[in-house]
Amino acid sequence: MTTENKPSNLFAKLLGKQYEELPAAIKQFHDTPGHLWKGYVNATGSNNVLAKIIRTFMGFPKPGNNLPITVSVYYTDQGNERWSRSFGNKKFSSLLMIDKKNPQLMSESFGLIKQHYKLELADNWLCWRLQYCSLLGVKLPSFLSPKIIANEGIDEKGTYQFIAKAELPLIGILLEYRGFLNPVL
User: Fold this and answer.
1) Considering the entire predicted model, what is its pTM?
2) Which CATH entry fits the domain spanning 10-183: 2.40.128.20, 3.40.50.1820, 3.90.45.10, 3.60.130.10?
3) I want to staple 37 with a disulfide (CB 3.0 to 4.6 A). Which of 57, 122, 176, 181 is the partner?
4) Burial of 162 by CB count in 10 Å (0-12 exposed, 13-18 middle, 19+ buried)?
């Protein structure tokens, strides 16, 4: 008898049995690689020049309300996940993987920057708890590191929703966005 070696998502691997405790919409999002998810987001952020330059360089959206968003997640041959996001005409992607130095953590790479998260469940929310950031493989001291909030949950109707906030030293809130996604069938 042969068994198919089907890749599984990083979140199920990292959370183990806790993964089954997640609300159905969160599991559906993580269990459907290659599917397109669409929704809307409200985005805010600092209006200083440096914040605007960084947002433009990274492909992050400008502040605005009811911005259309699409997200797709693909599993790579190496067992990682490639997340592609589009906010209107702004696009960015990141690569998520199990941290090589600490396999209890998940790493997310944005070019030269890597963020290292511990995943936790809290009141039906999947919380990404930033442990530290690195630049070119060098751990940033906490006073230079961004403050990140990233959570996934559901609304009262059971729709997948998310909250993300990135605050940088000397800049303030680079980007904060909240929104929801539905699968495109």
Assistant:
1) 0.89
2) 2.40.128.20
3) 181
4) buried
